[in-house]
Amino acid sequence: MTAATHSPLFPRESDVGQIVPPPRDADAVLDALDPEQREVATALHGPVCVLAGAGTGKTRAITHRIAYGVRAGILQPGSVLAVTFTNRAAGEMRGRLRQLGAGGVQARTFHSAALRQLQFFWPKAVGGELPRLLDRKVQLVAESSARCRIRLDRNELRDVTAEIEWAKVTQTVPADYPAAVAKSSREAPRDAAEIGQIYGMYEQLKRERSVIDFEDVLLLTVGILQDRHDIADQIRRQYQHFVVDEYQDVSPLQQRLLDLWLGDRESLCVVGDASQTIYSFTGATPDHLLNFRTRHPGATVVKLVRDYRSTPQVVHLANGLLNQARGRAAEHRLELISQREPGPEPVRAEYADEPAEAEGTARRIRDLIAAGVPAGEIAVLYRINAQSEVYEQALTDAGVPYQLRGAERFFERQEVREAGAALRGAARFGGNDSLLDDVVELPSQVRAVLSTKGWTTEPPAGSGAVRDRWESLAALVRLAEDFVRAKPSATLADLVAELDERAAAQHAPTVQGVTLASLHAAKGLEWDAVFLVGLTEGMMPITYAKTDEQIEEERRLLYVGVTRARSHLSLSWALSRSPGGRASRRATRFLNGLRPGSVAPGARGAGAGAGGPVERAGAARRKRRGPVLCRVCGKTLTDAGEMKLMRCEDCPSDMDEALYERLRDWRADQAQLLSQPAYCVFTDKTLMAIAEAVPGSPGELAGIAGVGGRKLDRFGADVLAICAGEERAEADRDS
Fold it and tell me: Which position has the higher pLDDT, 728 or 280?
């Protein structure tokens, strides 16, 4: 997994040890830019609007623009404020600017820039200390709902918290919330009047306790700049030039703050792509980007359409998706032109059911890895996080490592914080640490320290929190190995300093595994191979997308997913949820006209569609497989784990404990012979299912979920012998 643009501050592993000197002068900054990027870089006066398609090098263009202005003496570094939406993007921008010789430029998120100004000016504008920033908003929302005598479960609590955030960034007060929801066609998670009541109580409790939340940072900064012209003038004297990245994602509140920063000046450059607006649920709107030329009639407009990321085949599919789009954003779509050599055609695959789709995806991923594609350069993207479980299980069964994206930030994870503290202590008092007595080289020192925190040479079996913790620690070990290759004389103290710098910039080391992520979490990233899964009506577009604009945002979300792929792209869907279920699902409408046998909107008759054939990978299996029923109570099973056990989790188990232990011992031997983690042979759930079913023939063993054809051929004789109470013959063991 890599960022859509690589940062020289934190180079890729392949670049470690390569130090690129800054350009020798202003003109050299423009070297290696294409004509449109150069036009952006040299447009330093007046309002500038850059319409940049996916993979067209927008970050490169705007950082070179700032650096060119600084190196040419047209812009003073301290007078430039570049704002974006994530700490990682801001850190990457700062790193690029330093590499280009423009290190004094401020590059921050909206919230970070506003918080600095609020902290500095609060004593002058209001007096006293700035109220404490609320650590966990959801706890106060829970208390507010209790005060209002409204019961919320955990999911409702999270959703109501999100509604309060949306209301605040759209500058909606509690009393106006119900009307605002109705006007925006927003589907509230509960009765809008109830949410408005909770929202009002939440604001009251904040005032009583003198705390502010994340959105208040922007609101209070806006309030001070509106009321105190002297403070606004002071900020405007400092910042003369503004650059806004991802401008299609600004909220009304962020736009208001930007207007106050600018005053009556027009020294502004915005960069965005209306076709990548996918965060309207947070208050983001492309209207400010689409209206830019109306608000600034003399603006310079540059379009970046040369796609350096994806092959012509991927770009062709992406363009085809947008060609069917409707609405205002679609009127401003950009037709991308790939700059890469041709690659493989996108794969379109139809499966009988979701487990079959996950297993098929895992097989394809395993084949790609065998062909030389690194696991870290492969992603499985889905519409909602709840879809991840079946893919976690399938990848585990296939022996493919993976990582989940979209949860806690790397450096905020408890295990990473604990590991950092341990490394910091070892760096400070290493001479008195018996762990390091016989360890000299840096990676070995790190392994020794992290072994006290749960790191082992082999990963734990299965998925879950234990595996997640191990992956985090393993990423730190790999980082130490990369760091010492780039700087052979590095000490443990040097590594700790590097970790602190990365933490400040939110630049996490890459966990070496296939990425599982939602489409929203994948924005801004790219991979060599991308698998877009679960592309059925009801999931893409999602069921609750009802209005035309909501449907179009779902199309844009799929477009973002497609444009994450550099070379290999797979789009798949399943005809039913569970094995043996009724094949009532159909592929997303967004692929109409883009797959064989489908008809594009407005087309006459059935056309052949675009691209290669659809692989109906699960069709044969669908004819053979019936519903999976619990062996104990007869209930139809839909959960992947329960289907593997062939019973409900709550139903009593008739597992042969002694057989299970013999199978575990055999698995440990096999794992050692193969030099693989134990779960790559069989997972615990599969062994439990075998010990419960006690199969007596290859057919019975093959009927157990998790025992595919490959594993049946490789391990079947041993497993059946163990189930029969026999000692497995060494000659029959496939090592």
Answer: 280
